[in-house]
Amino acid sequence: MQRRHILLAGAIAAAAPWARAQSEPALLVIGHAGVPRVDAATVARLYTGRAIEADNLPVTVYNLAPGHSLRNRFLAVCLQFDEERYRAYWTVRRHVGKGAPPRELASVAQMLEVVTRTPGAVGYIDAASAAGQAGLNIISRL
Amino acid sequence: MTHAPPLRRRAGRPFPVAPLTPLASLALLSALAAAPPALAQAQDIAWSGFATLGFAQSGDAPGRYLRWIDSNGTFNADSVAALQADWRINPRWSATVQAKAAPSEKSDHQWQLRPAWAFLAWRPDDAWLVRAGRMRLPLYMYSEILDVGVAQDMARLPVEMYSILPSNEYNGFSVGHTRPTSLLPDGELAVEAYGGRIGTTARFWLRDGAPPQVPAGEHYVSVNVSTFGLLTTLRNARTTVRLGVHAARTARVGGERTPVDYPFVPIPIAPGLGYYKVDDAMPGPPLESVARIRNIITTLGVEQQLGDGWRVAAELARNQQFRTRLGSNTLGGYATLFREMGDFTPYVSVGRLRTSQPQMDLYRRLIGTQLPPMVPGAAQINAAQRVAAESIYVANQSSWALGMAWHTPWGGSLKVEHASTLIGETTRLIDTPPGQPSPENQRFGTWRLSYSVAY
Fold first, then answer.
1. Hey, what long-range contacts does A15-19 have (CB within 8 A, 24 or more apart)?
2. Going by CATH, does the domain composed of B18-454 fall within 2.40.160.10?
3. Which pTM does this prediction carry?
């Protein structure tokens, strides 16, 4: 009996991060009208500068500013990076002449505005922020 | 060696290079950094920069090591600062300019502010990257981050590997192709071809010189290097393997030719005595010379994550000299073991650099052939032979180093290292003081302390 309790406690503990993740709204990668759907691996390649295209269409990716909680979630979920590691990655990449990090925007509202009005733009928001936004082009769900 | 020369514009005029004090260099970069916000908004320019303030000291080196390191210590050996602007023109096109302040290649007492990067990049698709302009020569595994202290954990990349060329920038083009590969899990394979010209200055240290024509001390020879190469990099999150083959043709600026060899000239009236003809002004057969010398440099680098924070990096370079028996013909490399422990990364490293036998033999014969004082002109001939020997660029040394990098909570990297270097028969990396014996089979230690930042 005691053994069953231990196993149950272990199972709950193991499931807790998953349960937490489920309680958070999904991350949506959004694109300007006409940007095609992409998989999570492509999103990761776009935000690390290893790709510039979504299905052969050149795109410009936007990030939220450092310190924004949604940016932290996006880096963790999409890239398995924390802020420090992401900045370190780009510090090296930009100084080896392989490009500059994505442009940064201060808020989700600004992200929605820039992606909506900029051809080829790609950004991300959470599902809660997407509520009431008509005509959003969701190109990936993370 | 591929003595390298001052970088040149297409029109053949040297880039403007301003001699600066370290303080002036840093002040100028700070002023440039203060300007960007307005520009960045207008032109979508991303600004970044990096700097290292490094102090190095050796209490028992038999002369100045790596130009500056002695018992007084120096900030020149490891300090550098740079400001970079990346102009994101559109997803396919970008331009990068980097201004770097660092000790001058042409003087031991000045700093220079010079464009280290200035290139236009074009990505026709995800796989291809084409660049043209001034770039970093991709000679070593860590060439691109050579100056970026926060990007690697060693206080200084091992000199036994990272001293092939006095300059690491070239003007030219680069074409790279990257594609996924099944050779490694989640791996990618990158192939890069490049070509261009390097203008740089080779520094020689002449212990005694040959007064009055050649004074003792440091000498600088400007050279032009035409180079092209091909490198292949296989990598994934845990492994990097890099193989490069680089060809270089080196000519002295001004058209001065390089001797192929120094013939031995016996003195007829003194059997058993003779000298090496090292200058056309000396009696003897004509000196054979070439307008350009050629080098093939083959490099291999490996970095492997071993798990539990352990990591190993190793590189090897074979520098083959052609068309002359003078110059650099070396085998060098190192291996470093790192252990990441939170914010601290201690490491231990061993490195070795050896000059090939033909160059060492010639060096020995030039140094060892001494005419007795009763021969007319003996002193000048002996001095000229020594100058010629010191111009061969021989190096025979090995080092071990123990160091640690601390990734500080306020963003930079603080590093400390102690290295112990054993000089073999001789090494060009030591400036032997005038009148002192050349260091041989001697060990000395070097301390380094540096703080690096990037933003």
1. none
2. yes
3. 0.84
